[in-house]
Fold this sequence. Notes:
Layout: E1 2-5, E2 8-11, H1 20-27, E3 46-49, E4 52-55, E5 68-70, H2 83-90, H3 100-113, H4 119-126, H5 136-156
Parallel strand pairs: 1-5
Antiparallel strand pairs: 1-2, 3-4, 3-5
Bound molecules: FE2/S2 (inorganic) cluster (2 copies).
Amino acid sequence: MKLTVNxxxxxxxVDPDTPLLYVLREDLGLNAAxxxxxxxxxxxxxxxxxxxxxxxxxxxxxxxxxxxxLTLESLGTATxxxxxxxxxxxxxxxxxxYCTAGMMLRAEALLRRNPRPSDVEIRTALQxxxxxxxxxxxxLSAVRRAAVAMQAAAEAxx
Length: 158
Ligand code: FES
Ligand code: FES
């Protein structure tokens, strides 16, 4: 089957029930999404599917042939981080970092549909993703920073 990830279409040969997370990590070498619970309960595996945040550990690839999947790798690189990644770095919004990719993708989904979220809207949007290190306040701060930076960039771009 064909799977479109970060704008690239891949031919993959896997059991249709294989969870997207396994295909990303094992077949496509995209390791940002993490395996936490495998049960749709922690958010470590969050990716965007057609701009909506989804748990890739419980999403079988068979459902995704016509969808556009985005992983953290699409938001920037270590040497050229995107605005959301830059905001997480500036806010020091990670301790162990295991939740971070999922948090960023969940925040990206929010900022795509609501570029100026309130604190309550950020908290509500991020609720499905857990952080066992208690970095929540810094994550909140990072998403606020990212919203301001992205808004400023959009206004500067016309
Ligand atoms: S690993 Fe997918 S929700 Fe926990
Ligand atoms: S930074 Fe460790 S789980 Fe969130």
